[in-house]
Amino acid sequence: MSAFMANHGLSGNIMTQSIESIESFAALQLPAPLLTALADVGYETPSPIQAACIPILLAGRDLIGEAQTGTGKTAAFALPLLARLDLAKKVPQALVLTPTRELAIQVAEAFQKYAHHMPGFHVLPVYGGQSMVIQLRALSRGPHVIVGTPGRVMDHLERKSLNLNRLSTLVLDEADEMLRMGFIDDVEWILEHTPKERQTALFSATMPDPIRRIAQRYLREPEQVKIRSATTTVAAIKQRYWQVRGADKLEALTRMLEVEEEFEAALIFVRTKTATVDLAEKLEARGYEAAALNGDMTQGLREQVIERLKSGSLDIVVATDVAARGLDVPRISHVINYDVPYDTESYVHRIGRTGRAGRTGNAILFVAPREMRMLKAIERATRQPIEPIQLPTRGAVAERRVTQFKQQILDVLGEENLDFFYEVVRRMESEENVATRQIAAALAFLAQRERPLQPDGVDVPEYPAAPPRPERPAFAERTERGDRTERPAKAEWTERPPRAERPPREAREPRTFAADQVVRYRIEVGRNQGALPKEIVGAIANEGGIEGKLIGQINLFDDYSTVELPSLPPEVLDILKRTRVRQLPLKIRVAEVGEGDVRRPPAKPRWDKERVPARESPRKSPWETQTQERRPASAEFPSKPPYRSEKKPKPFGKPADKPPVKKRPY
Question: For labelling alongside 351, which of 224, 332, 422, 611 has CA 20 to 30 A away?
């Protein structure tokens, strides 16, 4: 092994040249089970980072690997770690720290794939968001490799459920990302709780000062491998940009998805978590299989989204930078930067999700005029020019849909048995006296109803840059009287031709309904789905063409709702059945008897006091009030006190003499 390292320039402390003389993994002296697994997955030639790092790690040396994402770093440390494992020992022998849950799962899957022909091997991913009981049970079985995030690894170390006394190798993957996410203190704490004689490998796309300090403190005379070819990640990626002007970004995005060649799956990047959900819902409303991926989702939902993307049931994922870190799905053919990244490194990480393992990829960047400086910075960082593209026209979208439709017909004609349908068409020709062309046109109309071949809307023109404005002729000198001389006439100025009259726009006739026939309908969204009355009204009014004043009472229940509407024709019902609220179709139908009846609680009794009738006579003077006779007690209220005071009026003058009060002696 030392001779091999000397021949390839690995005896020094820093290696900056990529190794191209290694033509196969067999030259790296890997065990036979690993070579068989690599052949199964189709790996033939190691990448530069793999050819440089595998011999160093096999020799037991510490390593610092600096290379961009997507260059094959996972195999660079996974293969030598597997080669040095002792499967007879059911204890953790290798620990890999990753910044995100998705990357931890991805690395664990890579270990499992490479160790396919190593019976008894066990790898365990540990991360936050997963049940602690499941992880504790798996740890008790003695995994050989632990792949986890710093926070959850710290939890297990504090619980004493993870024992690293027999640890032989520690790998820090995406160290710069862990620094950016604030995990660097947790990483140092974990490093201090591992054996001193361990082997340590550190991989990072960049090498900031805090990462260098960690390497100097915890690594022992590390070999440094630095892949300088900055364009290795983006060389196989076709980069283009569209300057946002004259049209809505969502409209531009959908048109580009329609006309893109070799489109299989797309990863769309936005800046905020809220934007992922908003954009995914809008794309899903337009007929795309789209889903959001962000840090606010539970781990189960995030894993479900990634699995759907891998299996092909999902075509578009809208994600943030952190959520998509470490995502490696071969189906991703396009990466679209819907929002411009904050820095050039984020852009490189984003587009690194496509064009991996020798495949070609496409990257599209949406740039506003004020963000053109960031575009220039990205070009300098990737050392490749980014070509501008024009917004596809409505005609181009229609042509693309027609081409796809014709191809579907040709595929059916070549693969399916259509004898039964031939007979159906023949009988229809003879019985209904219609031509085959008419039947085919009607069938084509029915087949494309969900996705019309001619998209709605109008084209929004691309506005080219304004030509330079001609210099205005200077005014002549003033005359003695102070008047200006006339401006010289321009020879190029011509009279503008009269503007042609614009043809009148065809007005869309509003739908009319019988307002006197009110029908109660049931829709399959309710409180449990988070539906709101305003969302239901908006969906029905916009999609069904029903005026808001015709939409009656809406009652929300747990799993469904009812709404009172005028009697709807079948074509409107068909539209509203597919209309979505909260990503769920309404599936509207006429409510059965009793559905939507709301039982209201009985009204509370009012205990109002009996009002005293207003006085009919004018208000009496104080003297008359004081001399008023006592009101006789009624039979119903014998103990009721009198309404007026029984005090007699005080006489005027000197008060009457009172008998003297006798004082008691003490």
Answer: 224
Give the global pTM: 0.46
Q: What is the mean pLDDT of residues 644-652?
A: 53
Reported as a single tens digit per residue, the pLDDT across 230-279 is 444 566 788 999 988 755 788 889 888 888 877 889 999 998 888 899 99
Q: Grade residue 583 by pLDDT with cuts at 50, 70 and 90.
A: confident
Average of pLDDT values for 455-468?
44
What is the tens place of the pLDDT at every residue in 40-87? 877 777 878 888 999 999 999 999 998 766 567 888 999 999 999 999
Cα–Cα–Cα angle for 17, 20, 22, rounded to 5 degrees: 125
18, 48 in Cβ contact below 8 A? yes
d(CA 117, CA 87): 12
Predicted pLDDT at 83: 93
Contact 629, 617 (CB under 8 A): no
d(CA 375, CA 373): 5
455-458-463-464 Cα dihedral, nearest 10 degrees: 50
Q: Give the count of alpha carbons within 13 A of 297, CB side only.
A: 24
C-alpha distances out from residue 311 to 256, 284, 627, Å: 23, 18, 100
Q: How many helices (H) and strands (E) are present in the chain, helices listed first? A: 21, 21
CA angle 370, 375, 381 (to 5 degrees): 145
Residue-level pLDDT at 651: 57
Buried/exposed code over 385-418 (b: 16+ C-beta within 10 A; e: otherwise): ebeeeebbeeeebeebbeeeeeeeeeeeeeeeee
Partners of 95 in beta bridges? 146, 170
Cα 666 from Cα 485, distance rounded (Å): 126
pLDDT digits (tens, 9 = 90+) for 294-349: 888 888 888 899 899 988 899 999 998 777 776 778 889 999 999 988 777 778 88
Beta strands per DSSP E along 398-471? none
Closest CA to 386 of 582, 219, 568, 237: 237
Instruction: Please check whether residue 595 is in contact with residue 556, taking contact to mean a CB–CB distance below 8 angstroms.
Output: no
Structural contact between residues 262 and 333, judged by C-beta atoms closer than 8 angstroms: yes
- Cα distances from 647 to residues 64, 275, 619, 643, 651, in angstroms, run 107, 81, 20, 12, 12
Rounded Cα distance, 92 and 162, in Å: 8
Helix, strand, or coil (residue 96): strand
Domains contained in the chain, CATH given = 2-226 (3.40.50.300), 237-392 (3.40.50.300), 395-447 (no CATH), 518-590 (3.30.70.330)
Both tokens of 513, joined, read 């309904």
Q: Are 153 and 146 in contact (CB under 8 A)?
A: yes
